[in-house]
Amino acid sequence: MADVLTARAAANPRRLAQRKKRRLAVVFVLPALLLLGALVVYPVLFSVGRSFFDAGGERFVGAGNYAAILHDPATLKAIRNSTIWVVVAPLLLTGLGLMLAVLTEKVRWATAFKLVLFLPMAVSFLAAGIIFRLAYQQDPDRGVLNAAVVGVHDTFADRAAYPTARAREGHGLTGRAGGPYSTEGNLRPGRSVSLGFVGVAPDAMPAGAKAAADAVAGADSIAGAVFLDFAPGGAGTPGTVDPGEKGLPGMTVEAVRDGRVAATATTADDGSFRLTGLADGEYTVRLPTANFTAPYQGVNWLSPALVTPAIIAAYLWVWTGFAMVLIGAGLSAIPRDALEAARMDGATEGQIFRKITVPLLAPVLTVVFVTLVINVMKVFDLVYIIAPGPVQEEANVLATRMWMVSFGGGNDQGLGSALSVVLLLLVVPAMIFNIRRFRRSGA
Fold first, then answer.
1. Which CATH number belongs to the domain containing residue 108 in this structure?
2. Is residue 327 part of a domain?
3. Residue 96: pLDDT band by 50, 70, 90 thresholds?
4. What is the pTM of this model?
5. Is residue 47 part of a domain?
6. CB burial class (10 A; 0-12, 13-18, 19+) of residue 78?
7. Whole-angstrom Cα distance, residue 226 to residue 286?
8. What is residue 382's predicted lDDT score, i.e. its pLDDT?
9. Do 399 and 366 share a domain, yes or no?
């Protein structure tokens, strides 16, 4: 009996110490629990309850808002885009991260290279969205991507000489804006013709343009001049070459007979041309469309068909460094003995990568992939900022659709709450999967 009392007396101080530690833990954890409840638990419960009411929150509609999701074309389009994001972006990022992590191990300045690739993570999505909105501008003078595309295109394709030029009406030429233009009547060899145009701004004239002058036709040729039919001060006679009027150099001129091109010439600096080697007969002088085609403006990156891939590309720019650094950390933990043993056995680098590196990195790759899946489900900033208003609906994902329905003009917070609940239900399984994997790796 005495031994029992002694044991109880010894246990009491221990119990008191344990209770004191628990109370102290509660004191430290309580503020965090209060914040968690106020910022996470309460909003979630409120959104779930709000999703069962109408737009004004006055009438109970049950699952009506959830049914509306399946019948709203704009919401279905947002679900489709979210699916594209979930399938494409994490796969591309994980693949890019793996490739760059492996390659940086063979680069001399690996640390500097990783730092450069990781720098976009320091840029907010707002700033990244503005950067790419400007980069995707279709005007080559403003959008850097189209400036590069147009530069490459113009290197391999000739630009139109005078895209804004148009023939002076009623003075020998017929056609429509943008060409082609042809003489109203037929001409025989030995004749000359003056072809006047307007609509060319002074700063669009070639630097080497000289005063217009007619060429003299020979017995087997048709000659003339293509000129800017506008004299300084508005003087002169329309349709004829007057003093002070300049020729249009670099213009392609054709002699056409029976629908076939019999001769071609290019105007000189003074606009003169000579179509030679013509047999006797009647010809039409034609200026083809190539002289007047509007300049190539590049790709419309933010068109309905390309806006989602364009935004995903911006997302890749921001998050590639994140994937590379995490996978690189896992790569550095791989036993080098296994790699060296494979090399000693004659395995190629490709075989080592496929059969040793990737299987050993599978847990890290899975964590990176699932983390990115969670992230892309919640993407909002880039979509909202980069997509212009006319194509916003084509680029919408669940998060942007939820905001548009609730606060961006829809004013239907019942449907918006239902969308937020659906988004939460989609994210939670991926989060649980990641948490379990972290616990297993910690064990």
1. 1.10.3720.10
2. yes
3. very high
4. 0.76
5. no
6. buried
7. 11
8. 92
9. yes
